[in-house]
Amino acid sequence: LHSFPTRRSSDLHIASFVTRAAVTNMAEMELGELALTQSADPGVKSFARQMIKDHTATNEKLKIVAADQKIALPGTVDEEHRTLKQQLSILEGSAFDAQYMKAMVKGHDAAIGFFETASQSPKLPAALKEFAAQTLPVLMEHRDAAHSLLGKPAG
């Protein structure tokens, strides 16, 4: 069994947190837009609209906090999310829905762990820790909804 090293909270730096949070928000918005065109399921489309709405709002909050820290947000998603979007873009209907929802479960599970770490990191300024803590309940709601749509319990 391979285990991946976990990041200690003290390893988390301001710029890396802001960049990863921004990339995650942008990816959720882009994938949500894709889901609106590729999905045939009203529940998945509703989830996608919520992703767009919530992650747009979260990114606006992040822009303010990042500006206070004099950190510029990235303008595009990273290679991992570009690849995921490309892979999903060739699917449609139920095939799209299954893969999109799997990606949403995986992504939100990872984001929750990352934001929990950030909310307690001694290296992050109070404003970023507060942003992370305030974002966690929304991420958890998204995770629970994604698990529900995928048909497996959250946690």
Radius of gyration: 16 Å
Residue-averaged pLDDT? 90
Termini separation (Å)? 22 Å
Structural class: mainly alpha
Sequence stretches where pLDDT stays below 50 over 5 or more residues = 1-11
Work out the helix count. Answer: 5
Total strand segments: 0
How much of the sequence is in beta strands? Answer: under 5%
Inertia-based shape: elongated
- Succession of helices and strands: HHHHH
The biggest sheet amounts to: none
Give the helix level as a range of percent. over 70%
What is this structure, in a nutshell?
By secondary structure, the chain is mainly α. The chain has 5 helices and no strands.
How would you characterize the overall build of this protein?
The chain is mainly alpha-helical and 155 residues long. 74% of the residues lie in helices and 0% in strands. It has five helices and no strands. It has helices at residues 14-38, 42-68, 79-89, 93-119, 126-150. Helix 1 runs antiparallel to helix 4, helix 2 packs antiparallel against helix 5 and helix 4 packs antiparallel against helix 5 (126-150). It is elongated and about 45 Å long. Mean pLDDT is 90; it is low at 1-11.
